[in-house]
Design goal:
The chain is mainly alpha-helical and 280 residues long. The protein has four domains: 105 residues, Helix Hairpins (Orthogonal Bundle), CATH 1.10.287.1080; 26 residues; 79 residues, Orthogonal Bundle (Helix Hairpins); 53 residues, no CATH class. The chain is 71% helix and 0% strand. The chain is globular and about 70 Å long. It starts with 7 loop residues before the first helix and ends with a helix. Keywords: Hydrolase.
Length: 280
């Protein structure tokens, strides 16, 4: 159900009120999407065009947390919250649902899935057991759905791979230890090396995907978030390569003025510098 809009005077007061809270944000979004006076860009948007921004904002929240940039986090969380309000406003415009429906849905879900907090169940169980119970309740809500149903297609591919594997593992389709996963990685890497020389580009891509899928499985067995691990590797690469640029710049040069042998030596220097910083 939609919340009644304030009149023009009240709307102006609300959008400029720093203490307006959630009502202020909802009204700002309504004004941006007003067919007569709103923003042309906001009016042109659809669920499909906004979805990539939603994913981007979620990643920026994760990045701020990874960097422990606590001064940036309120703004990043605000950007993500705005995405929820944006989708809700477009839904209301289309007569589908409104922001209060979103709030009610998540509130009802949290209450129903935490009977040990809001109901009569005992809290005397571990976090792991609570996770098992959460998944059991989700499965019950899905009813007779197939095991892999409901794993969102829009997730980052590595994250989705882990979720698919977790679902399969719950019904016993899983390797018993990391030894079998590592052996499979070796097998898939060999197949990729062979495919490189004799298969089509599409077949090589398929073999590469198989290798990534097994790498995600190893991450799951090791209780590592593969997205976080890769973000860390990206950050490390950026940091070390920028040190290479800095050292070359001291001689008035750029990487294009260098060669692989020199840059590789500078990379090892940056690597040693990183290790020293970690040990200190």
């Amino acid at each position: 159900m939609a919340t009644p809009r304030p009149d023009a005077t009240e709307s102006d007061r609300l959008v400029h009120d720093p203490k307006g809270g959630m009502d202020r944000l909802v009204e700002i979004m309504a004004r941006l999407r007003d067919p007569a006076t709103g923003c042309p860009w906001d009016l042109e948007q659809t669920f499909s065009t906004i979805a990539p921004y939603t994913l981007e904002e979620a990643h920026e929240v994760a990045d701020a947390i990874r960097r422990q940039a606590w001064d940036e986090l309120p703004g990043e969380l605000g950007d993500l919250l705005f995405q929820v309000v944006f989708h809700s406003r477009m839904a209301e415009d289309a007569g589908l649902f409104a922001f209060p429906d979103v709030v009610r849905a998540i509130s009802d879900k949290m209450v129903s899935r935490h009977p040990h907090v809001f109901g009569d169940e005992s809290r005397d169980k571990s976090a792991d057991q609570q996770t098992v119970d959460w998944e059991r309740m989700k499965a019950a809500e899905r009813g007779a759905a197939r095991v892999l149903d409901g794993v969102a297609l829009g997730l980052p591919a590595l994250t989705r791979a882990v979720k698919l594997q977790k679902r399969a593992a719950r019904v016993g389709f899983d390797w018993p230890s990391t030894d079998e996963v590592v052996a499979k990685i070796t097998e898939e890497a060999a197949e990729l090396a062979e495919a490189r020389d004799r298969l089509t580009p599409a077949e090589v891509e398929e073999e590469f995907g198989d290798l990534l899928f097994v790498m995600a499985n190893l991450a799951r067995h090791l209780k590592i978030d593969p997205e976080a691990a890769l973000r860390g590797a990206n950050a490390k690469f950026e940091r070390r390569f920028r040190r290479i640029e800095d050292w070359l710049a001291e001689d008035g040069r750029t990487p294009t003025d260098s060669d692989l042998a020199e840059m590789d030596a500078l990379w090892n220097r940056a690597k040693a510098e990183d290790k020293l910083a970690q040990d200190s």
